């Protein structure tokens, strides 16, 4: 996303978060731009029964939580460290100053937001109409092609747990396990030492 030297130039603070620590809460005021220096972050909500729904998972070099900055609304989800994280944080004001001085970075941020919107639209469509195996494959292909930019059969190790996949795609864990086993039989994925490769 934004080069580290540019973040530092615009007074980014580096903050450490422990695994399970909340970075910001749903409905809190959006004040900062966040970019992962190391670690993994998830954005999530919980329904009335306490079931978690994962809105997205973000990795080193990716940003998260920026859409509310552009439209002056509160965060629609929580952000939580999946593992120990180091995160660059820039105030909203400095973030907008950065964007106004560098059109290439502005375009990069715009493309990233557009990809996320596209992914959300695809997943919404998949959840409403497609079989579990198809949904899972679409999700894996999104990770492979759009997040990690890798090619080749079984070149992407899926770092998500079965529980995280079910939370992301609105499926039961048992359904995810069965569907992945069937995808392996069909030659769509490979399983080695309980890890899935696409």
Automatic annotation (TrEMBL):
Keywords associated with the record: DNA-binding, Transcription, Transcription regulation
Residue ranges of every copy of the HTH crp-type domain listed in the record: 130-198
Pfam families the UniProt entry points to: cNMP_binding, HTH_Crp_2
UniProt key word Transcription regulation: yes
Residue ranges constituting the Cyclic nucleotide-binding domain according to the UniProt record: 15-116
Gene3D superfamilies assigned: Jelly Rolls
Top-rank taxon, per record: Bacteria
Protein name: CRP-like cAMP-binding protein
């Amino acid at each position: 996303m934004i080069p580290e030297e540019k973040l530092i130039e615009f007074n980014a603070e580096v903050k450490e978060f422990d695994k399970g620590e909340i970075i910001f809460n749903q409905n809190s005021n959006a004040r900062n731009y966040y970019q992962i220096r190391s670690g993994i972050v998830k954005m999530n909500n919980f329904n009335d029964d306490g079931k978690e729904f994962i809105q997205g998972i973000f990795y080193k070099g990716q940003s998260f939580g920026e859409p509310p900055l552009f439209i002056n609304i509160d965060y629609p989800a929580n952000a939580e460290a999946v593992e120990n994280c180091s995160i660059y944080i820039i105030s909203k004001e400095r973030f907008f100053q950065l964007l106004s001085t560098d059109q290439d970075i502005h375009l990069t941020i715009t493309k990233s937001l557009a990809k996320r919107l596209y992914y959300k639209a695809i997943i919404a469509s998949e959840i409403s109409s497609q079989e579990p195996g198809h949904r899972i494959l679409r999700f894996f292909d999104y990770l492979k092609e759009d997040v990690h930019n890798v090619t080749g059969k079984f070149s992407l190790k899926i770092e998500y747990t079965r529980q995280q996949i079910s939370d992301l795609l609105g499926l039961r864990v048992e359904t995810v396990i069965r569907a992945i086993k069937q995808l392996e039989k069909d030659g769509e994925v490979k399983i080695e030492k309980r890890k899935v490769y696409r």
